[in-house]
Specification:
The chain is α+β, with helices and mostly antiparallel strands. The protein contains 29 helices and 28 strands. Helix 6 runs antiparallel to helix 7 and helix 15 crosses helix 16.
């Protein structure tokens, strides 16, 4: 290069350099690629990737003086990718080595250990993390005797649920023979207990655009879940002793309980407890719905915003105290002491709040920025932004799969790129500061709309106004009062009053017409294009250039989920656990057959699975069919009806059923038919006279046949063999390519008469994983296999997709979206 010509440096003193930028970008990309693996490689392969990455790094250092050519940048990108993939894979292999032994899955054990986490209360009991010290088998023997034998190695940390005697899993667990169990006694953090438990590998429902329970368990280090067995007195839960272990969790629990005891208003107390201790379970479900509708849910738990605010206040306090000592100032300048003190105190606050994923991520971000400032680095904002991102991903690769990671990093990047928040003098007046804050909020809201639609399929149209009021109120009033209440308890009452005022205001906001905008989930490329368009529209550019962002942004708002062509139809059988829920779609119409079970007093399949799924697909239901009254078929109906007002409801539901108050239910009567877009729908059961002869709800299940003349599907509810025989005798044509197996595969259903009349190619069983009913029964499976029918069940398939255009095929979401953290059921059908 000629003399006097500047040349970019690979790693200058005051800049991160192109090779450094490529190295960090590669590390993030490598971790992202590793997270797409369906199965882990052997640990030696990831170790080899790290060795190759180290070799590439050494070569970069050796060739540093030669400049910043494309080859060096490519080498840096490759080395970073190898390092990111190798590090993420090595951590995953180490985590997988502690997985639950299949021999322990579904078996009863006697375990001893410590309560390692502040127990979280819910309507039916408590949930808590448990550190194992020892375990042994508990095997029931004839004659009410028991014996123990050595058990295989148990994961060091498990997550247990302890239910009250009248709730959920307790009632479903057959007690071990013996005297009655003692009364429910809630455990506390740090205590040692001996418990009889039933363990299983983390296994959740898996649906498109749905919550991934197995990913959360992997991220939180939970290798097994289970529930406490409260059966025989000799194996009843036994509190051994209180210990000094887990002092932070004990303190969190004490503070949480003190808040809930002191603050009378349960709703306000839950919010205050969540802001101080991070216990999000303390907030009521109805309040969460209001917070999400108004776009302020991020303020109501320990998030990056709260940790950052705490760090800023701590830094200000440390700096003020430090400047009062001449000796301390001479030893370490006050700005540096404030920076270090703010990060350390923020880390302590994050630990006290439960060291959740958002808190950890924020602490690593703050620590990275602090180290750069302490080192005197004056890098351009893209380098700082990417460095922080690479550090966070290095510590926690799974953060790339969490919405909070993308929302926080993209928001910061948008503020940097648009120039928001960096202009103006530090002596600006109140009006100027207020205007700048509103501009920043508008900038972030507009730019993040595509990403929010991709992640949540919902945008709060009043979020800008709600956040403009809620952010300063929560961060400057509610949170400081709640935190100071740890030292001065009466301040919790003031924090509760401030919370009550905010809840009232947000409740009013949430009832504003069109408060939220719901849209189908766009493809990834469209969301990326929309994000670029939103960023272009908020950047400091001429208006003519900003308008160029509209062509990128508008297609996102016009996106519609693909539907079948006229004359065809498709089924999506949602994975809801032990229950039925099947979405039938034609070219322009939609029908939902059943709404899944109720999981507990404050949770159901409608709220957790169906509402997000329908929103992501952009569905507006025309008809809801509730096969019969049982809660595993109607548990999510209330949530679906709240989302889909005006839907026509059919079903075998008695007049006094509570759902009749939400929407009038037209009874199912055999012979009813209708046609949508060239597809015929027919009710085949119950007949008009059946209600007089059948007394059990199962016997009155609505049976629906859907056909276009070339392919057919039969949805059967919970009919049993008597009804199957009657149906086969009176229905002129029961043939179907797909059969929703009656009663989840119960031995009382799926008779030879029905199977011979239907002659399905595919049998789909919607049942819960390791359900207590033993569904599907072995004799039912035998009858299906004898006839050469392909059998699929939701625990192994997840959500199932079937189309009349390919009637002999069924696609499983668990296979198509397979990742290495997903549980694989070893026992085949």
């Amino acid at each position: 290069m000629r003399s006097g010509t500047t040349r970019p440096e690979c790693a200058g003193r005051q800049g991160c350099g192109w090779t450094g930028f490529a190295l960090m970008a590669g590390s993030v990309a490598g971790a992202a690629l590793q997270l797409q693996q369906a199965a882990l490689w052997h640990g030696s392969i990831y170790a080899a990737l790290l060795v190759l990455a180290a070799g590439g790094g050494c070569l970069l250092v050796w060739r540093r003086a030669s400049g910043c050519g494309w080859r060096m940048i490519a080498l840096a990108l490759l080395s970073g990718a190898l390092a990111g993939a190798g590090l993420a894979g090595s951590r995953a292999v180490a985590h997988a080595s502690d997985a639950l032994d299949p021999a322990l899955d579904g078996r009863d054990l006697i375990v001893e250990g410590r309560v390692a986490q502040m127990p979280q209360r819910h309507a039916g009991g408590v949930r808590f993390a448990f550190e194992l010290e020892s375990a042994r088998w508990l095997v029931a023997q004839p004659g009410d005797a028991t014996r123990v034998q050595p058990a295989p190695r148990v994961p060091p940390r498990i997550h247990l649920s302890w239910y009250a005697q009248d709730a959920g899993a307790w009632a479903s667990s057959a007690p071990v023979a013996g005297p009655a169990a003692p009364a429910f006694e809630s455990p506390h953090a740090g205590e040692r207990w001996r418990l009889a438990v039933r363990l299983k590998a983390p296994h959740g429902t898996l649906n498109p655009h749905g919550f991934d329970l197995e990913l959360r368990a992997w991220e939180q280090g939970e290798h097994a879940t289970g529930h406490v067995r409260t059966g025989a007195l000799e194996h009843a839960p036994l509190r051994i002793a209180a210990t000094w272990r887990h002092p932070v969790e004990r303190a969190r629990e004490a503070v949480r309980d003190a808040i809930l005891e002191r603050v009378e208003d349960r709703r306000a107390a839950g919010v205050v407890a969540a802001l101080v201790t991070g216990d999000q379970q303390a907030i009521e479900r109805a309040d969460w719905e209001v917070f999400r509708a108004t776009g302020v849910a991020h303020l109501m738990s320990i998030s990056g915003l709260h940790v950052t605010l705490f760090a800023w206040l701590a830094a200000w306090g440390v700096g003020a105290v430090w400047r009062r000592s001449a000796r301390l100032v001479l030893w370490l300048p006050a700005p540096r002491a404030a920076l270090v003190g703010g990060v350390l105190l923020a880390a302590l606050y994050a630990v006290f709040s439960g060291w959740g994923v958002p808190s950890r991520r924020t602490v690593w971000m703050l620590a990275t920025v602090a180290l750069l400032r302490l080192g005197g680095r004056q890098w351009p904002w893209p380098c700082v932004w990417l460095t922080v991102c690479a550090v966070v991903v290095g510590f926690d690769p799974l953060s790339l799969l969490t919405p909070g990671f993308w929302l926080s990093f993209v928001a910061v990047g948008v503020l940097f790129a648009s120039g928001a928040g960096v202009d103006g003098s530090g002596r600006a007046g109140v009006a100027t500061r207020l205007g700048r804050m509103l501009r920043e909020q508008w900038t972030v809201t507009l730019a993040l709309t595509p990403l929010t639609l991709l992640l949540f399929q919902q945008v709060s149209l009043i979020g800008l106004a709600a956040n403009a009021l809620a952010i300063p109120w929560v961060t400057l009033v509610v949170t400081p009062l709640a935190l100071l209440g740890v030292a001065v308890a009466p301040l919790w009452t003031l924090a509760a009053w401030a919370t009550q005022a905010l809840i009232l205001l947000l409740g009013w906001f949430s009832h504003v017409p069109f408060a939220t905008l719901s849209m189908p989930a766009p493809p990834l490329w469209m969301a990326v294009a929309g994000l670029g368009g939103g960023l272009l529209m908020v950047m400091r550019l001429p208006v003519s250039m900003r308008l160029l962002g509209l062509p990128l942004f508008l297609p996102l708002l016009m996106w519609q989920s693909p539907r079948p062509v006229p004359g065809e139809f498709e089924l999506l059988a949602a994975d809801v656990g032990q229950g039925n829920a099947v979405l039938v779609r034609t070219a322009h119409r939609s029908l939902l057959y059943d709404t899944g079970p109720r999981y507990g007093r404050d949770s159901d399949a409608g709220q957790r699975v169906l509402v997000p799924l329908l929103r992501a697909l952009g569905e507006r239901l025309d008809t809801l069919v509730l096969s019969h009254r049982d809660s595993d078929h109607t548990g999510g109906a209330a949530a679906v009806l709240a989302m889909q007002p005006g839907v026509v409801v059919r079903g075998s539901i008695e007049a006094a059923h509570p759902l009749q108050a939400l929407a009038p239910v037209r009874p199912c009567v055999a012979g009813e038919r209708w046609t949508w877009d060239g597809v015929d729908f027919a009710i085949l059961h119950p007949a008009e006279a059946d209600p007089e002869g059948f007394t059990r709800p199962n016997a009155l299940s609505c049976v629906l046949r859907v056909t276009n003349g070339r392919a057919a599907a039969l949805l059967t509810g919970d009919i049993e063999q008597v009804q199957e025989s009657a149906l086969a005798a009176r229905a002129p044509d029961l043939r179907a390519d797909l059969l929703l197996v009656p009663h989840h595969g119960s031995r009382t259903s799926s008779s030879a008469a029905l199977l011979d009349a239907v002659r399905p190619r595919i049998a789909l069983i919607q049942a819960g994983w390791r359900n207590r009913f033993g569904h599907p029964a072995s004799e039912v499976l035998a009858r299906l296999y004898e006839r050469g029918i392909a059998v699929f069940d939701s625990p192994r398939c997840g959500a199932a997709f079937w189309s009349s255009e390919a009637p002999g095929e069924l696609r499983c979401h668990r296979q198509e979206a397979r990742r290495y953290w997903h549980h694989v059921e070893d026992q085949g059908l």
